Amino acid sequence: MTEDVIFMVPGREPFGKEEFRAASEGMKGMRFDGRSEIEELQIFDNWAFLRNRIDVAVTPPAGAPVRRSGYALSILCKGSDGRWRVMRDANLLI
User: Fold this and answer.
1) Tens digit of pLDDT for each residue in 13-63?
2) Residue 69, C-beta contacts closer than 8 angstroms, at least 6 positions apart
3) How far is CA 63 from each of CA 28, 54, 60, 91, rounded to the nearest angstrom?
4) CB half-sphere exposure, 19, CA atoms < 13 A
5) pLDDT tens digits for 54-87?
6) What is the DSSP pairing of strand 84-91 with strand 66-78?
7) In sequence order, which residues have a C-beta less than 8 Å from that of residue 4 and are 6 or more positions away?
8) Rounded distance, CA 76 to CA 27, Å?
9) All domains of the chain in start order, with CATH
């Protein structure tokens, strides 16, 4: 992800890389099982967008799986090193 990445999810204000990192730390020990189906991908010179459908189940160490599904739209940019990174991500999983 880029240093200025912005994530957008239902029910909260947009957030950046540090908030994403903190949320990820809180998910240690969780088991993830997911599927993603790309519905549209457009690539331009140094940026691209990806529209896809995501289905995911997250299972805590001592609990039942929580399932979420929906659409996501990601904007990617190509760095000077040639690697693609997420710059903006709108995740509409419910």
Assistant:
1) 999 999 999 999 989 999 999 999 999 999 999 999 999 999 999 999 999
2) 53, 54, 55, 56, 93, 94
3) 14, 22, 5, 24
4) 11
5) 999 999 999 999 999 999 999 999 999 999 999 9
6) antiparallel
7) 16, 87
8) 25
9) 6-91 (3.10.450.50)
Written as one letter, the residue type at 50 is L
Number of residues written out for the chain: 94
Residue 93 CB-density burial (10 A; 0-12 exposed, 13-18 middle, 19+ buried): middle
Instruction: Specify the residue for token string 């990617």.
Output: 76
